[in-house]
User: Fold this.
Amino acid sequence: MNSSRYGLQTKATKTYTDGLRKQRPLSIPIQRAVIFEAESSRQLGRDFRSGSDLVYQRFGHPTSRAAAEKIALLEGAEVALVFGSGMGAISTALLALAGSAGAHIVAQREIFAQTFTFLNEPLRELGVETTFVNVADMAELRSKIRPTTKLVYIESPSNPLLRVVDITAICAIAREQKIPVLIDGTFASPYLQNPLALGASVVVHSATKFLAGHSDVMCGAAAGSHELIAKIGNMQKLLGTVLDPHASWLLLRGIKSLGVRVQRQADSALAIARFLKAQKEIEEVNYPYLEGSHNYEIAIKQMRGGGGVLSFQFKRGFEAATKFVDALQLIPVATSLGGVESVIEIPFDIDWGEDQLGAAAHNTGISAGLIRLSVGIEDLADLLDDLRRGLEALRT
Assistant:
């Protein structure tokens, strides 16, 4: 049976879409073994060379393979891999695709702070140069590509400004130069956006976030063509950035509810964005599906919803932001995002200050008064009441 005929939530929920009726578990079993016995020495050698997942956990594992196959199905990819974290997926992919001395990467300026740091520090020390550009300006993007450019790296929506880039247009420019495009699609998840269908070569996720969805397992993923994922897989084996079998099972369990979680989060996030936009204390609200927001027209063209994260800027800066956050009673102050429970943070206090990025912090467009809110699945009325509580603290 062709699984492509099913909708995305059906693909996420169903353990099997082959149409066969036979006795088998509807939850993929956790196989805890690290090593597997072979029939003979020659068989072990053949299994090792063929990349079998029945040799040694760092080279592959049945439970991790099941999680990777699920993500490949959701992304419409030929194949996928799972990793021990989102940064494990990102760093492994970058090293595999553009990690040789003398290589050049063109990267979006507005990306996750620790991805920026990895490109700007460890990779530079390895002889890989990255040029950070405004990828909304196609002329600038095209002008920065060199003969040594091995990769274009983008993120959409971006963290934490929620900027949406024109994936199709960027990929068309890269394709002219025969350069792969690597995109971090964490904020949208496969439920809302499929970058490979828009021309991207590889999509990576911090699967800790929306894919797993419960803030109880750290994991990452990469999906794309056999050729590129094979390169990333070879690097993964060397680095050991693999995902534990039990974590793979938790990821699979979380994915089953992906659609219903993300849809509710997106609906609530849009309502909250509209509410915040009307508040006099707030200078700007960043949310892809908010009418009149940055890149709204692009977002509604390439996404199926705005996602569960928004950010907003207070007119009175850091002082107002901290007073607002500290007055909340329902929404926890915590980092990360994409879980069933809402969390809120001030990015400047964590990733985006000078203590983390150095002088580069001045070029990110992220101010000290910016707040990032990851919306969970709580009752919307309760979330709005808590946000009103924070606003009231500013007015007293």
Observations:
- The two ends are 63 Å apart (CA to CA).
